[in-house]
């Protein structure tokens, strides 16, 4: 187990493409504290998923270093869980069976699994659907199964790659509020990838803005809003002002 810190230094990643190479990330430096919620924004193809995959240990950097809890990433581990845009719940398992799947893989006892699922179901607002199958649920509910599956194994770090990108706007905002509620009960470190600036502002403590490919850190912006954040924040003048500033910065990053 780790302390939930992430240290990314001089991170560069190139992919071979035929006889040439594509640089996806170039000299990325970010320090993330335990329990911090960091959003990573940038245009499509700027290396966001590549960065997250490296943090997850699913891919390796070309050069530079990534430390999790002070130790170099050697591969995937139970200290880091991922949530993707596409549904990850197994369609042939019920909500309860999906939530306890990772624990079964870890060889945890039936009593332990029951305890974890018993805590998660109300936290996710899925108590009434414990024995339902994913296809019987809405897109937002299926997303909550994915978040629950990630939290079931009690990771120090949650890595989220545009998890709400496929949801309609209303459901997406609802899921942002839900994620904040779940996160405030669990307090893991979160690295949350999005190309939606409003989403980044609503959720995060800091926003790491990447430039178009090759992805470099263009700016790291503190989000000054208190927690807990309420849906009303989205309507506030301060929110609107920060969004305008960030959109301008993004526009400049694109030019
Ligand atoms: N496995 C791969 N092989 C070759 N090129 C890749 C691979 N994965 C990503 N890339 C390239 O790296 C760049 C960044 O991709 P990605 O990290 O998926 O961007 P984002 O998630 O920001 O949209 C893109 O140009 C993409 O084509
Ligand atoms: Mg991506």
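Sequence proposed for the structure above (255 residues):
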């Amino acid at each position: 187990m780790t302390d939930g810190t992430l240290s990314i230094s001089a991170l560069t990643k190139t992919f071979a493409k035929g006889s040439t190479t594509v640089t996806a990330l170039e000299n990325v430096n970010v320090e993330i504290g335990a329990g911090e919620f960091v959003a990573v924004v940038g245009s499509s193809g700027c290396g966001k998923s590549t960065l997250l995959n490296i943090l997850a240990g699913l891919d390796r950097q070309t050069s530079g270093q990534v430390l999790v809890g002070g130790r170099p990433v050697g591969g995937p581990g139970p200290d880091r869980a991922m949530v993707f845009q596409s549904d990850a719940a197994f369609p042939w398992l019920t909500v309860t069976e999906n939530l306890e799947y990772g624990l079964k893989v870890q060889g945890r006892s039936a009593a332990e699994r029951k305890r974890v699922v018993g805590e998660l179901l109300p936290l996710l607002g899925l108590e009434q659907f414990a024995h339902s199958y994913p296809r019987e649920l809405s897109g937002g509910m299926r997303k909550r199964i994915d978040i629950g599956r990630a939290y079931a194994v009690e990771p120090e770090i949650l890595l989220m790659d545009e998890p709400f990108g496929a949801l309609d706007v209303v459901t997406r905002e609802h899921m942002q509020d839900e994620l904040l509620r779940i996160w405030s009960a669990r307090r893991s470190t979160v690295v949350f990838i999005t190309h939606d600036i409003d989403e980044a502002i609503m959720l995060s403590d800091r926003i790491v803005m990447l430039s178009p490919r090759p992805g470099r850190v263009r700016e790291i912006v503190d989000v000054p809003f208190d927690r807990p954040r309420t849906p009303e924040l989205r309507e506030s003048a301060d929110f609107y002002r920060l969004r305008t500033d960030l959109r301008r910065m993004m526009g400049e990053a694109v030019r």
